Protein 1
Amino acid sequence: MVYCLKRIMFPGRFQPFHLGHLYVFEKIIREYDEVVFIIGSAQDGFTCSNPFTAGERIEMINETLKYYGYSRDQYWLIPVPDINKPLAWTAYVLAMTPRVDAVVSGNPHVQYIYEWFGLKVVKIDLINPDLYNGTYIRKLILNDSDWEKLVPKPVVDYIKSINGVERIKRVCRHGFG
């Protein structure tokens, strides 16, 4: 079989998957046949910076894309643990995923590393990165502020179903990373 699908990689931690992530997906899926989500920091969970496990983040993304009518054959969900060596991690990611034509990111550091590897990088203008930001959303959750408007409804429902609000409060207030 000849490789003819156009695939783009979308790396992130997705802690949690929010409307900014959905915006990027909806923008790139118009030009590419498949999106390969890289679920970074896959080894982490139950910490303040990474409260959700890789499996939970996979479910959040999958439920959201299903809710918005996307077919499962339009995207891949691949968890990849950190190894704390950016160039080695990038090579590891490329070895763990199907072949891609490009990488999408709004992070200049990520863009530079993939460009250095010779990949085409799609630089995306993020929408309201101060609002659509996992750190900010987790802080809102921690402080009982209005976070639900920043994430898709399936993510709100999922976080509530796993008692994720309480989890964030416990791990952040007790200093678990």
Protein 2
Amino acid sequence: MMRHWFLTNTCYGNWLPGDPRGFVGRVREHRDGDEPDARRVEHRTPGTPYDRELPGLQASSARLLKCPPIRLDVEHARVLLDQFLATAAHRNWTLLAVSIMVNHFHLVVAVSDDPPPGKILGDFKSWGSRALNARFGEPPSKTWWTAGGSKRKLPDARAVARVARYVLAEQPNPLVTWTPGS
């Protein structure tokens, strides 16, 4: 049985906790506008609220960065694409769409059975890191990527087609896009 996944990950330092666009992370719980209490909550369940715009948290997170945010260029993107294709082939997974931008990537992948989604994204990130390190050296942060990433299971062929179209045609200024036969 094939499962289809939409995987996304940002480059190190590009989408910090507290970002106005929203974020998933552990934050102190607020109750009815009061001061936060000491208990931390994590909003990472799909379809539930997530946290937005906490300027103090974003500034604090920026101060903790080990280097400036990582930005990819076309050469980085080509190395990554080659490695993503090799990783998929090695695992007997099928890449259906890839888009690599300066600060993140999207993958649509079909996998047999049902491996944990963290393993799927983790394999792409770890092998991508090895390829980038071999070509460009390890970044000062010791990582190219933010922790975690988005792993969404696609329920049907319609969702796969919709997400593939989003990945291939709706990304602003992609460095590289790829689909089978391209």
Protein 3
Amino acid sequence: MRFVEIIGGWINRYFSNEEAVYLIVVLLAGFGLLFIFGTALAPVLTGLVLAFLLQGLVARLERWHLPRSLAVYLTFLFFIGGFAALLLFIFPLVWRQLAAFVNALPDVIQRLQEAARGLPEAFPNVIDDAQVDAWLQTLGTELASFGRAVLEQSVTQLPSVVGWLIYLILVPISVFFFLKDGDRLTRWFLGLLPKNRPLLDQVGSEMNVQIANYIRGKFIEILIVGAASYLAFALLGLNYAALMALLVGLSVLVPFVGAAVVTIPVALVALIQWGWTIDTVYLLVAYGGIQAVDGNVIVPLLFSEAVDLHPIAIIVAVLAFGGLWGFWGVFFAIPLATLIKAVMNAWPAYPLNPEPASTDQETV
């Protein structure tokens, strides 16, 4: 009986406000919709993300006294030009380097075997020939499996030309209509909610700004880090410079963990290409400098007003939402964690035992 009273008191404290119920229904409906139909709605969701990214350009053009319709059309043309450049130049370059990397795996295994054969002589009291043979066998099996998996994945994706065409058609269309009719769609959605909704408006307004700033900031960060990495890798003559730069750029999507993980393939390619030489040292110093500038300059400038979350909270959000929605879960992990924090801060709560108001006159 005591347990029932505790649960009832907790419900009365946090859910006695009608708006709190509306908010929890909206959140559950949104998460449920994404969980069930997220894959099917992926082209539209991609268009929504890109529209958030481009909305800043529309707003800037409007501040230059251009009509909104003209600003939308110019922004959309800019997007189509960038999208075409991505498909015609960047993707083919990365694909060629990925194919070359997979084809070079046998040579990579051979070089690693040659390097590993010298370990028993260098460390006779720590490593013996049997351990090296076991390591090389495992490494060869894993690299061969990786190569087959990449090629099989590539082959299995070829029949899905219709799926790619759907993306290529629906994503630009979604971007255009989100830019053109975003205000109308927002008014329609708000019309489904109660008219008196200060809590929903507070959380919605904060998250609209947070998500827009996060998407634009993250895109700029990926662009800067990826471009700087490509220039450094290309100038130093690193093999697969475009592929490695793409990995480094995308690594910023996963705070803390991404930079550490992507260091492994970058260092591995450098070691296989140059060995323990001064060129490898130069590359690692340049890579470390890019990561230091990103963490200490770019991130504070782009996200100074974004999120005040503990690193553990960020890692938990990345793991949880990434497990639910894959890439998009990782991408939106920080905004979603910010949403949860904003809801917790704004959630109406009432004391279980409110103290009576004090009076200046004593009760007789």
